[in-house]
Design brief:
Distance between the termini: 32 Å
Number of helices: 9
Helix content: 55-70%
Number of strands: 0
Structural class: mainly alpha
Number of domains: 1
Strand content: under 5%
Shape: globular
Length: 222
Amino acid sequence: MILLRKQFAASPLLARVAPFVIFVLLTFCQGLFGEASRYWFYLAKTLVGIWLIWEMRAFVTEMRWAFSWEAVVVGVGVCALWVGLDELYPKLGKAGAAWNPFAQFGEGSALAWAFVVVRLLGSSLVVPPLEEVFYRSFLYRYLAKTDFLSVPLGQFAWLPFLATSAVFGFAHREWLAGILCAMAYQWLVIRKQRLGDAMTAHAITNLLLGLWVVGRNDWKFW
């Protein structure tokens, strides 16, 4: 842990990129070791994600939650957009098995509910800081200038705006919703000149989407 903190302190780029990469690598491990591993690896990556956020917090000063009415509107709007557009465009690749712990561990089982809670908490509190730091604190500004720390968070540039939105979008099977989602979060960062509102909007989107999934039994969004 001490070595990791030293590396983060020495490299602003590493502090913003390495946690995201580690989190993504653990995501790819989900399901590689049997169907149940999809859920256990989600738990593992959530715990690792919490640890990574703790380790990077001192070196990524913009990673601070912020609340605003714009963040609420964007968060709710993106969730509505994600669900509402779903049947209107072709998705990337083939749909994998739905992430449904009740199908795996039994309807109403305590373990299944535990994984649902982990998913809600992980997607709402762990994913937003890691993804927003990578995409909107690092990638957007790096595409504008390699000395990315010299680029203000509120600076607008067309190429980074479109490129970052495309990278974020095509990282999701729901590519169109992902692109529009990324544009909305990036607009928030530029408008508020800080990262925290986008983190909050991202958290609201993921929480509402998770509640939709569980409440409507619509597991394809997970």
